[in-house]
Amino acid sequence: MTELSFLNSKGRPTRSDEGQGDARFTTSTGHHGLDLEEALIFEIGTTETTGVDVPEVPDVASRLGGLERLEPIDLPGLSEPETVRHFTRLSRKNYAIDMGLFPLGSCTMKHNPRLNEQMARLPGFADIHPLQPTSTVPGALGVMDELAHWLKTLTGMPAVTLAPKAGAHGELCGMMAIRAALEAKGNARSIVLVPESAHGTNPATAAFLGYKVASIPATQDGRVDVAALKDKLSEDVAAVMITNPNTCGLFERDIVEIADAVHAIGGYFYCDGANFNAIVGKVRPGDLGVDAMHINLHKTFSTPHGGGGPGSGPVVFSEALAPFVPRPFVLASEDGLELIEHASEQEADTSFGRMCAFHGQMGMFTRALTYMKSHGADGLAQVAEDAVLNANYILSQLKDDLSAPYAGPCMHEVLFDESFLKGTGVSTLDFAKAMIDEGFHPMTMYFPLVVAGAMLVEPTETESKASLDEFIDALRHLARAAKAGEDRFKGAPYFAPMQRLDETQAARNPVLSYTPPDAAQQAAE
Amino acid sequence: MTELSFLNSKGRPTRSDEGQGDARFTTSTGHHGLDLEEALIFEIGTTETTGVDVPEVPDVASRLGGLERLEPIDLPGLSEPETVRHFTRLSRKNYAIDMGLFPLGSCTMKHNPRLNEQMARLPGFADIHPLQPTSTVPGALGVMDELAHWLKTLTGMPAVTLAPKAGAHGELCGMMAIRAALEAKGNARSIVLVPESAHGTNPATAAFLGYKVASIPATQDGRVDVAALKDKLSEDVAAVMITNPNTCGLFERDIVEIADAVHAIGGYFYCDGANFNAIVGKVRPGDLGVDAMHINLHKTFSTPHGGGGPGSGPVVFSEALAPFVPRPFVLASEDGLELIEHASEQEADTSFGRMCAFHGQMGMFTRALTYMKSHGADGLAQVAEDAVLNANYILSQLKDDLSAPYAGPCMHEVLFDESFLKGTGVSTLDFAKAMIDEGFHPMTMYFPLVVAGAMLVEPTETESKASLDEFIDALRHLARAAKAGEDRFKGAPYFAPMQRLDETQAARNPVLSYTPPDAAQQAAE
Amino acid sequence: MRYLPLTDSDRQSMLSAIGAPLIDDLFSDVPADKLLKEPVDLPHHQAEMLVARDMRRYANQNLGAGDAAFFCGAGAYRHHIPASVDTIIQRGEFLTAYTPYQPEIAQGTLQYLFEFQTQVARLFDMDVANASLYDGSTACLEAILMATRVTKRSKVLLSGGLHPHYRDVVRSMTRFTVETIICNDPVATQDAPGSDTDWLKTTVDEEAACVVVQYPNIFGHIEDFSQLADAVHSTGALLIVVVTEPVALGAIKAPGAMGADVVVGEGQGLSVGLQYGGPYLGLFAARKKFLRQMPGRLCGETVDAEGKRGFVLTLSTREQHIRREKATSNICTNSGLCALAFTAHMALLGEAGLKKLAHYNHSRAVQAAERLAAIDGVTLLNDSFFNEFTLQLAGDAEAIVEHLAQRSILAGVPGARIYPERTQLKDVLIVCVTETVQDEDIDALAQGLKECLA
Amino acid sequence: MRYLPLTDSDRQSMLSAIGAPLIDDLFSDVPADKLLKEPVDLPHHQAEMLVARDMRRYANQNLGAGDAAFFCGAGAYRHHIPASVDTIIQRGEFLTAYTPYQPEIAQGTLQYLFEFQTQVARLFDMDVANASLYDGSTACLEAILMATRVTKRSKVLLSGGLHPHYRDVVRSMTRFTVETIICNDPVATQDAPGSDTDWLKTTVDEEAACVVVQYPNIFGHIEDFSQLADAVHSTGALLIVVVTEPVALGAIKAPGAMGADVVVGEGQGLSVGLQYGGPYLGLFAARKKFLRQMPGRLCGETVDAEGKRGFVLTLSTREQHIRREKATSNICTNSGLCALAFTAHMALLGEAGLKKLAHYNHSRAVQAAERLAAIDGVTLLNDSFFNEFTLQLAGDAEAIVEHLAQRSILAGVPGARIYPERTQLKDVLIVCVTETVQDEDIDALAQGLKECLA
Ligand SMILES: Cc1ncc(COP(=O)(O)O)c(C=O)c1O
Ligand SMILES: Cc1ncc(COP(=O)(O)O)c(C=O)c1O
Known about the structure:
Helix content of chain A: 25-40%
Number of helices of chain C: 14
Oligomer: heterotetramer
Radius of gyration of chain C: 25 Å
Strand order of the largest sheet of chain C: 2-8-7-6-5-3-4
Bound molecules: pyridoxal-5'-phosphate
Largest interface: B-C, 215 and 215 residues
């Protein structure tokens, strides 16, 4: 450490005079106005401090079987004021939908209505136990049943399970059912076909179940190459996993033909429904030959998943797969709704079993149902139309300045590639980071893998035209700046709380939990 | 407008390359990373847009008496996503307790516990009407009665009214009672004595009631000059209004003597209790001869008052003034609690009447009572002790670098003056603005009026020692920088969302509501 | 204690840094015999969970409007407040900020105050609005005091249709300073249209500082007061219009368009809900010429050192912290957060939403009024009304309300509750029907009244 | 529609900018006969107020734990979660952010994930924790799959004390890929101490990838498994410890200190509450040597271009988005917000608070257990336990639970609910006593049991 002046009194580096241009002098705290630095809990808390008052412990003979934890746990605490401040400060270093356009393709970052949050917090939903007598929770079963009805009606599919905890878990669920169905017919088969544009969870899921993954190429126009797919079909193909609309933001025109071909060899059509937002209320996957499809409630149906979760991935099923749905599920009988948690002793058990400890993401069901009821059948179709309209509007306004590998119309997201940056020295990554300076979250980058330097832009329907226009202006401005050779890309972002982070160092020498400086030093020695 | 490059596509100015040092290039949006500009509702909304769904209006014959509003109201609307984003972005331009130390002397900006917010939102409190039968709201009366009990016990006073809506309203209430009491004795008198260090609401209140205000000077040690006060006492003095601890952060040592002297001439002692946080649980104003005192629930008892309100200013009364308390009030009788809203037909009506439409700030009562129960008698005394300890710690650490006009110990706030800045060219204002750059809200400036360039620092008890130490370091650093002639004060703040604002222009040509640019132009022509 | 960050060892080390052996050494200015030796006689600190339990117990004793068929108004209105409004006011940066005295780091607050002022001015059709007062009643008082300052007169005329609590606030708080307050008698019927207005017209004279009317009035009547405005202005007095239910202004003419000089109102219905009476939101707007006599804070537009648009509190020379005993009012803390809720809700509504909401309220009220008026023993006293009307019952209204409350029907506000001294109002019931009232609620009330009056 | 900003005129002008006459022209890739001509058969959009009413109706049909004497546990625990925790997770910047793939503008999320990983690792006494999985059961499954990868073996031994739902998840989800899953029988009594452990010790062999135990186990028993760990390790297998109630670890020895190789758990009790089973919070921690075989996201420390400390998602070459079919797991979305709640709550507790909370839970449970065991027809089956214990009743436990539920006593989880196939568990009741249980609740349960068993 040579330049001690860059460290504040806590040893935290303050911004240097070089580096970012905004420091005309060094603040002593390392804070800059409302941009406040924040240390780790482990640096500011103490193990004596607590922000929770617990009543006095009654004096009774312990029955811990001699297993008392006597060693320090080394978990520092904070008082409530410090806690609120710590997390408030941290939060302010994040970008979020509430702050601006979040055009992360494939992620459907739409507005999260706050009514949904209020409803999910009603004690009748939030404070009920998964194993209390079902006779005491008819309303919970009612929500599950009504949500199931909406999902089945919107997809035109006869069965649904609510158990899966996210999209990938839904994929697992759908593919488990497919494998169970095949095993029931006596042959699990060994191959799953997955387009090269697929999301990573698709091949990972197939592999999780022991299937070999065979990749299908894309056509020039960004769709599944049907001929290539048919070529790979055989009696050993268990299923195809196709995303529709696909990850290039395009509707698979030949989807019915694909479904028929797969069915013809006795395989199943798993549809990745992550992009359902583009077609909800407009097209029913059940009309397209789908056998199983997961729906990300945290995308299409607006349940918040800040920082990476939680999600919820219900799966709809065709008649063929319905017998294999996992437990638990809600059954409507004459006596009202029933929660089926275990194999029945009377009937043959075809369910593939259980996927998680309880009944799925109830907290997401209440939010999603609230959202669905708010929009209604009419509003949901409007959602799809506006999502698609917004994406096409961006495409129409930016196709001359950026480069779109596939002609429109697109669905709810629009794909650009890096060719407009050719010769500028600016990469897709640089371009995306420069968007941060302009006040936007970058789009999805380098995915899908079928185009070079992909930029996948999904505005969602909850952006206004003014917001899109501002975004379009900014991207056009950046594209021109890149072409003009302006020097604002390589080091971007300049105006974010941090400059580019060294990901290589992070991976090479993984530091995954806090170690106090002296301990770290000792370890290094 | 010559330099159009500083305007973005909406005509909003972006930061210039000159000015603040942080702009190494101009962004096209005017945003800078997470620092997002936000236009006015009137610039982004339209009168057709709405973020609220209202059910279809039933078709009935209108009975509006021919008074339909036919003219446009010109109130633009926003969809819900736009609304949430608008206010989220605005909020991020604020400093707040949740973000850092807020040492605004006299304001007691302490942590606002979130339990209080939860409790105030229980439908049993939030969704009851002030005029629904009192038989249906025993819990509301219960809260009021228990709160009254806590306030009376903490102050050692026999009576309390909860009606006043803030501190100044409480002053009005107390002084009304005093005037009513004097009138009842046949002579309202004409003078109220107020120390020169008093908060502006004190003289304003006295004037509101038609009293002449006579000012009492302070002594060298920052207290009321008792001799001068006694000099001014006469049969025409209705009351003295004294803040204790006073606005210099000092306890009035001679308070009992003052009370006695006022009582001796038949006047009353009104105590401004804004600074009760320093002594809650430690000293009872009732033991000091106080006749009336308001308590700012939004200071001492932590009810939030973001952006300037709401407050709540219950007033405690001595036996002498108790008969004059305003209506409504809660009366405990054999049949339980009763809400007295009107003069009784049986008894003589001594109440001075009604101060506000309903029963006071119920939403603040639930919060304050929640807070009191959380701390308890023991915790509240600890509040006072920690508040005083924190202030004295700051005094002890900064008295050499800054200048403290009065020797300690101080109470819950510490007063500095501008003398340490003498010859530096840096004013109290400049110094305070430089604190913003360091990540702090400035202290109260130029108040009280008894010292030149006052800086009144009130840390409150909800700051940790680490937080105080960081603050102390920063102030020491700034004081030394000022003395060293560093050029970072006159233009401060440099790192805030805005540079210094032109208050003169605002007052000279008041623009108090939005006028669209062409209308404004027309008006100017 | 969870809210206190200092540990015992912090306290020790700080005391020694200060040089004070004991904490009570810092309280040495307090007369020794006055310093308490032990905690006062109140319960000690409690876990959050247990405090919540105590408070929930109180809350559960109350009959919340959501659990009842609910028809109360009379100065406090129950509207549906969108979930996002509460989310917004709970943002820490808004909730835990102070009065925006440091504009460089308070633009969030300042901009919404500017937006609020604009919305209020437009809603009322006035030139300028302030940044809020405590509630409608204190706004009414402040308007009257402003009128006395502006006109230098000391006589005030109050309409009989003014909310009696507002009337009481005015009477109480001016008793030592305003010479004459004359208040007309309340008349629940609209049979004699304009009789109150006629009285005001004929009574106003060159000594009057102002005339105060309410619109819609306490009984729900709405009346054009353009002619009254002329009469008032011809004497040099000011016309003050009180609006306790601003939603009405989405459907009926703005007071400004009818000649009001000052419009004050109560904004709770659009912002923070019922809350048993407070905190509420005082709205205050006036013609520009009275600007420098207005009470309360004002937020104004300006530019920063770089020329960037920004907002500041302005014209503070009217206020107590600058002007002390010469201030236009003693108000300091106002209703900032409630104003934020109002601004956010109004932004959500927009003109289209506000108008639809207002018309929906009105139509539902008309439906209910017709339904109830058809009951034997019930007479509707209004010709015109917005969402609130008055019924004459063939029986003691307070007793009926009390009886129905036991069946979770909160039928409205009986005359005796707010006019205990007026026996002729014993049998009237003021009924309010907002968008929150459902068909089943109207059924319940109709059925209940039928039974009570049978 | 309140969530849709586009106005009809926006839509028109955008369509013409695109050059599409009709919106359905943008859907031209959809086979014409598949495009719906009108909305599906579901209700149309509704006002917020009416949606809220519908949802409240559902909520009101459920008996919330707060309105009952509540004793349910068995994998989901009811703890008091401080109000500030919910405030924190509702910050828009946390709630509406995405996975922190852009670290320059996601340090808020990244730093709390780093803090979360540190807290979990310290609580379990493990080297590294990941950034969360779906829930405890899927964490358990992932741990087993990791063990099969690490050991390249395909036999798994499950303790009879493992939550039967976890057992079922493991069985179902490995049925196509793991050769042998052997599960010991559940034994509710602790009479034969260590019998389950003994079985595991003797059954584990060189073919076993791992042994899975739960601590405290499903019946509440707590047992030292240090010796088991030795036995397991001597065969080259991994010891996986499942903790469904992490509060216990404030009172009892850390699994890491007893030789666990992987510790997984369920974090809902300290973060997001009961929620009828989800979303919950999967905790996953392991010894450092397994780092590159771990499932899920990891957040690591690094520096930015200026040398300032910051955090990023790291070691993503394990993950599906990079490694596709070779990934260590298919997980993508995890339980980020729940992890935030956990981190905030753990920060509030700190070591002092956690220990006190744990000891308070334990003492209350002991009090309750002794009280209940004194009832005729009730036998306590545990020697040692933390906050949950198992009672043998002289009667059908499920029927008794059902009966008491009608009196708002949620007495616990009856054996038959989770072990319907085991008639010998028909009469056992698993009772959990956390800090939320009051004396009056215990009284109610004792009284209820007494009456049912009389
Ligand atoms: C196309 C696609 N498929 C699957 C997934 C996985 O869904 P989840 O993250 O909910 O597991 C995603 C989400 O990122 C996706 O975009
Ligand atoms: C000493 C003093 N007195 C009175 C007041 C007025 O209280 P309020 O703002 O609640 O009306 C204040 C508040 O700023 C104050 O500091």
